[in-house]
Amino acid sequence: MAQKNVVDYFNKLYTSESRKIPQLIGVSNTTNIVDVTWRVSEVTAQFKKAITEVLNPLVKSGAIESDFITGEVTDKKIKDAVTNTIADIKRGGGGYSRALQLNAWNVSVKPGTYYLRRAKGGVGITFRFISSGKGTGTGANDTRIRAVATGMRDGIYENWVRKSEDFFNKMPKTGRATKVRKTITDNTQIAHEKQTTKGALALGLLRKNKPSVVLNGFITVTDVADQIENNISLDYARNFKKKKSGRFSFRYFIETSIRKNAKGSEDSDITNIKQKEVKKAVNDLFVKQYGIIGATLRKISGSDTIDRQIVDGTITDIMKPLTKSGRPDMRFKVNKKAKPFRAKKDSFKGKRAKGFSPKTATIGVAIAGTSLRRPEKKKRNDSANLLKVETLINKRLPAEVRRNMGRPALINQTGRFSNSVELERLRETAGGISGEYTYLLNPYQTFENEGSKRWPSGYNPKPLITKSIRNLAIQYTEQKFTQLIRR
Predict the structure, then answer these.
(1) Are 435 and 479 in contact (CB under 8 A)?
(2) Which ranges constitute the DSSP H helices of 92-163?
(3) Structural domain boundaries of the chain?
């Protein structure tokens, strides 16, 4: 199957799963948590762009002086407006919309809308929205999230306008369907963080629901998902483990922040994954299987490839009606349409050396105590199966190691350790399968505590690696791993 067909098939499954993921928190009967962070530095920069865009037409029409923007639309004045709005909300909401009259979130998780006492990832404010999953009208929903965002935008703008002194009455007002609100909203959208975009969550859901769907002879849905994860340093596994806090269980924990959010701007956006990352991942898998040249030849469906000719030739042999003499009966369409296999030849034209006469010879070598018979068929099959299991495990091993990382074990930071882990030398034993593995010993061998420096026992990479190998092995073989040792 050409790469394009594999990409199209995967994207069809991916699109279907993406429809099950909420854009934000979903309807009120889903059990999700969404954090929306307004970081002062990011919000200030985006408001400056938005207000400048709003005021430029007024400068051109002469309604305000040309130096107004440079004098009033400054980083300091806008930053003051942002920080004052945040301070007002934490003091009890100020005179802003009802949506911003919120309480601080405490340790106990209850459905509703709150602000965190400390912003996530910088100076600012984080709003936390929790849906209950217990029925309509309980907890937060998308409408509530948007209402808080609108209240924040209006509050920041009005705070800035109040500081504009003589120009106050000339400032455009905010309100429903006004150009000011639309322009500010366009520049301060709710954008998902990389690990919790709808695209990333849909990829994880597809992997969870259809892991073994085969896209062609050797690629599965899991293979493509793993390759995408490796290519864009994505780790969405934590969003597919049921979480519980007190008596409250929730499905997704989605993190967002306020910034310009152009469609497809994030690596893990649905658009970017479908149009770019799936193609790249499939090509990477084809290169691993066939090499660069082989993968290139299989990128598109064009003239008959050798693979296609073999298939057509097989169909011809099986399905064609024959005459009594055993030849194809050309009265039938199947014999007229099917294409016989034509071997592709390399030709070389040149002069034969004088006196050259090609000769052939057969050489037999016998070794004492052996025969020239081929190994028994069962042994050959067992060796081939073990090699296949080893290949399949190694394809997914780095991603599986990352999924199993986390305290008290090692924490994934760069992917360098997990990408270095490799299973080697599988062989049959009396009780099952034994094998060896390796990883980047320098610098990670120190965590085995074989040197002078002592680390917590949980940091030892050996249990982490053997667990990951065994998790994958049960999907490909019924035999048990009796022994796994580091080479």
Answers:
(1) no
(2) 142-162
(3) 25-194+239-260, 314-342, 377-486
Distance, in Å, from the CA atom of 184 to the CA atom of 294, rounded to the nearest integer, reads: 51
Angle at 182 between CA 181 and CA 188, to 5 degrees: 85
**pTM for the whole thing?**
0.56
Architecture of domain 377-486 in CATH?
Answer: 2-Layer Sandwich (3.30)
Q: Hey, CA dihedral for 449, 455, 458, 460, is it positive or negative?
A: negative
Length of the chain in terms of residues written: 487
**Between 420 and 168, residue with greater pLDDT:** 420
Q: Is 266 exposed, middle or buried (0-12, 13-18, 19+ CB in 10 A)?
A: buried
238/288 Cα distance (integer angstroms):
28
DSSP state of 344: -
pLDDT digits (tens, 9 = 90+) for 176-209: 547 888 899 999 998 888 777 888 888 888 888 8
- Tell me: pLDDT of 53 over 70: yes
Kindly provide the b/e burial profile for residues 133-150, where b requires at least 16 CB atoms within 10 angstroms of the residue's own CB.
Answer: beeeeebbbbebbebbbb
| Distance, CA of 194 to chain centre | 9
- Element (H or E) spanning 248, and its range? strand 248-250
